[in-house]
Amino acid sequence: MQVSENHQRYWQKNLRITGILLFIWFVVTYVVGYYARDLNFTFFGWPFSFWMGAQGALIIYCVIIWYYARYMGKLDQEHGVAEEE
Amino acid sequence: MAGMTFDHGSGYSAADKAAFKKQLNKVYGWYTGGFIIFIIVLAIAEQMGLGRAAIGLIFLLATVALYAGIGVMSRTNDASEYYVAGRRVPAIYNGMATGADWMSGASFVGMAGTLYLTGYSGLAFIMGWTGGYCLVALFLAPYLRKFGQFTIPDFLGARYDGNLVRMLGILAAILCSFTYVVAQIYAVGLITTRLSGLSFDIGVFVGLGGILVCSFLGGMRAVTWTQVAQYIILIIAYLLPVVWLSVKQTGVPIPQAVYGFQLEKVTAQEKKLIDDPKEKEVIAIFKKQADDLGAKLKDPKAALAADREAAQKKVDDLKAGNSPVAEVQAAEKSLAALPKDEEAAKKAWTAAKTAAEGRAKPLAGMPRHAAQYAGDPKGDAAAQKAFDTSRRNFLALVFCLMVGTAALPHILMRYYTTPSVREARESVTWSLFFIFLLYFTAPALAVLVKYEVFSVLVGTPFDKLPGWISQWSRVDPGLLSVVDINKDGIFQLGEMKIGGDIIVLATPEIGGLPYVISGMVAAGGLAAALSTADGLLLTIANALSHDLYYKMIDPNAPTARRVMISKMLLLVVAVLAAMVAAQKPADILFLVSAAFSFAAAAFFPVLTLGIFWKRANKWGAALGMALGLGITFYYMATTQPWLRGVFGVTSSVADNTWWGISPISAGLFGVPLGFVAIIVVSLLTPAPKPEVQELVEHVRYPNLKAA
């Protein structure tokens, strides 16, 4: 079937949020990882980059996925592509 | 567990779904309560004199019977129930099942140990095995759910128009899953042995029985509900001892929140231990051992002759001097224990030399716990190089584990089981949340145990060491051995040899908890290994029965026969895997990590481009998978010691290594090559058929209708 303009807008928005969240994922994982030795200041007892690897990154991953599910749930509704219950 | 039933009508409305979820909450609520009561009853029985062996056996039988019971209650012959649990698993329960499916025996038993031994470097596993779920959520789960078939090769076959790519998918799925399942069954054998005292081979087959009753009778449906039950056991078993240890050390019952301060103390203690003269004494002794062995290795033949002569002389002297029989026997034994010939001597001495060199280092060879990477970026050239290589390998490993996570078929398959695309997305959130609970506890456990060792054990006289040390070194000297090397009667860190697997298993005893908790931890490890094995076996059997037999050989096969064949194959694969595991193959851990690189290179490019790039076609996909897998395999075969031996590679490792990347991260080369190959080849060959392009549109929108 033909994909309408509405569908294209939906897909563009999906790609945009995917890109943004992927960027955050990248920074948290690889940028912090790359500069781990420099991000060595104390954070509640942990060296900051150690804490990021052991807890911070994990929390941010959870938030990324949670936010994506919520955002896409709303986007489905707005663009009329949500599944019928 | 009476009254537990997973039967429900075929049509399901929102009200049905809510009622089903409510029923599940009730069943698993009672189940959790029942498990806790079971532990309490056993604890009371232990106080009244129930022996350790009995406790272990009760745990083993009770949990395996429980899993088998769920399997019997969920038995089915319906294809949709068998392959995807009827697609009505609520997001939160699919999350728990994925968590159990995901966390293998090695995650449960070995992860904290790896962190204990390697400090910051071990965090690559923590980040890699959680961050991969971001890729699952953003790139794969919702689209695969919308596609809505039964397996991953199914998607490849439909998207890439035909059997070529489907076949490659089947092969890659079996390659990744089989090595992985062997490792799980091996872990099952080890844990049952420890729990019950049965021999390893019998342990393997008892565990196998538990796996089979479940997946054989009820397929994905039984596996799902068992995995939820297993998750509940494994998470309670993991968290409870760590919380206890934290209360003991800090007075706070949330170890994850406070172990930063323990880490500070560990770091301070490390500085002291590195400069401690007694520790240096131990290191010097090991260094001398290594040097002596090095000297012997220069001329093994003469050294062996000299050793033999000296041992013979001692026997003769003792005999001539009328020494006690025991002394003579001991001398004769040590004479007999000498290597048989020059080859054997060389091998034994080289191994001993490596071991001694490994222990002739500060902190018993462990890096400082909080130090990010080896070497020093501001130091001399060698230190800079060490720093760069160590950082590069860390990031490469994180990459491979993440992409591999997002490409393992047994995990992706789980997202076919949710009722809707929306719930598939939510289900990834729950999956990661439940995995997170264990993974952010493991680094805390590692630090707490290290604190215990550094501050309580080091400096204690040998006759006052806590009981768990002698108990565990009796169980398995490979896991823990403590010898007074410098004969001062005081415990030094360098005098302990510790294996990673002991950290989790011994935590209850380190914390001073009763034996019933140790039994529970072992049962948790068993649950982790069994649940992963279930999921993997199902993946292999489905790839063969659904994709190979039904889709490629006999498309007219009736449903009942397809399910029957799948069950038969499951049995065959399980027995094969158990036979391989019973051989105790070497380098099993390497094979597991290799599975991630293979999955990453084979599946990730082809799946994501299949969804996000309509132009990707069959030829690109086939070549991309083949090249990605090929280069990954080539790199491993030329740089990993065991594989080099298998394939008879003789050129030097250094020549074959690219940018110092270790073989475990070979996917780092396979994934980009896969992407490039798919793009280039697709552009050089005709675009896919309109039907295929429509399929891509179809998976992109949860509900595609004319607006």
What does it look like?
The complex is a heterodimer of chains A (85) and B (707). Chain A has helices at 5-34, 48-78, and strands at 42-43, 46-47. With 85 residues, chain A is mainly α. In chain A, strands 1-2 form a two-stranded antiparallel sheet. In chain A, strand 1 and strand 2 form a beta hairpin. In chain A, helix 1 packs antiparallel against helix 2 (48-78). Chain A is elongated, with a radius of gyration of 18 Å. The mean pLDDT of chain A is 85. With 707 residues, chain B is mainly α. Among the domains of chain B are: 277-373, no CATH class; 586-707, no CATH class. Chain B has 28 helices and 2 strands. Chain B has a two-stranded antiparallel ribbon with strand order 1-2. In chain B, helix 8 packs antiparallel against helix 21 (515-553) and helix 23 (588-612) packs antiparallel against helix 24. Chain B is globular, with a radius of gyration of 28 Å. At the A-B interface, helix 1, strand 1, strand 2 and helix 2 of A face helix 6, helix 10, helix 15, helix 17 and helix 28 of B.
Which tags fit this structure?
heterodimer, A: 85 residues, mainly alpha, two-stranded antiparallel ribbon, 2 strands, 5% strand, elongated, B: 707 residues, two-stranded antiparallel sheet, 1% strand
